[in-house]
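Researcher: I'd like a structural prediction for the single chain below. Treat it as a standalone chain; there are no partners to consider.
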Amino acid sequence: MVQFAVSSMFFHEYQVEEIFDFVEESGLDTMEFWVETPHFWLRDLPVPELSACIRDHSRLSPVTVHAPILDLNPCSINPRVATASLEYTIEAIELAERVSAPVVTIHPGRRTAKRTPSEADYARFDHYIAAVHLASRGKTVRIAIENMENKINSLLCTPAGVRELLDREPWLDFTLDISHAMGVSTEEVRRYLDLCSDRLVNVHAGRANGGRMHLPLDRKPEMAEIFSWLAEYGYKGHVTLELEDMNFAHDLCSEEKIVILMEEVSFLRECFG
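Model: Treating it as a single chain, here is the predicted structure.
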């Protein structure tokens, strides 16, 4: 059965315990916990506290995990940045295993310069993927790589590119970011499903419009159509609301965010029956 979730970063300004309370109150099934959730990240990743929150909110278990990405780039031309990015990804995999998360989502990195990726950039990417594979051995958590926005320096932003990587790395799974794909077109989402649905284990749900990403679903017909495609393919994994709170007209308090999520999850449940 599909599990409806939200990124913990939607409540980025709150403490971890409060975030769990808010997600539970919103009627969602679970959450995707970002390692960079500030109250967790800025206190040196207190995993026992996270485990206690999961235990105290058993209805939301299991949570998925998103590896750190802010200020990081595993394919950076700066070797120290690339090393730090890889280390944080490996730490996120280990954290996910400790809290019994079924999936951890990782990003592929990008060319540092805003230019088409070169052979050297892809060599750094291959090194990153090999190191993540090594770190994942013996773990039960599934590693899912996410498609990026279609930008000039993106390393993984086309359905064909994701399919090629999945064929080359049979241990690796896929997180579909709908908003990133919709930056090209709604049909681009369909192309990702046509080519990669067999390895799909997580979906980041949000709209794109006019160059803006991670907008609310707002019961838009194109979103209902996308969710009908997911149902056609028999998708049974997580559908994770990834909403940027800066896209709203004013700063939202926790109560407003909960009401928004209640409406969003109501729409999701209608779409998936």
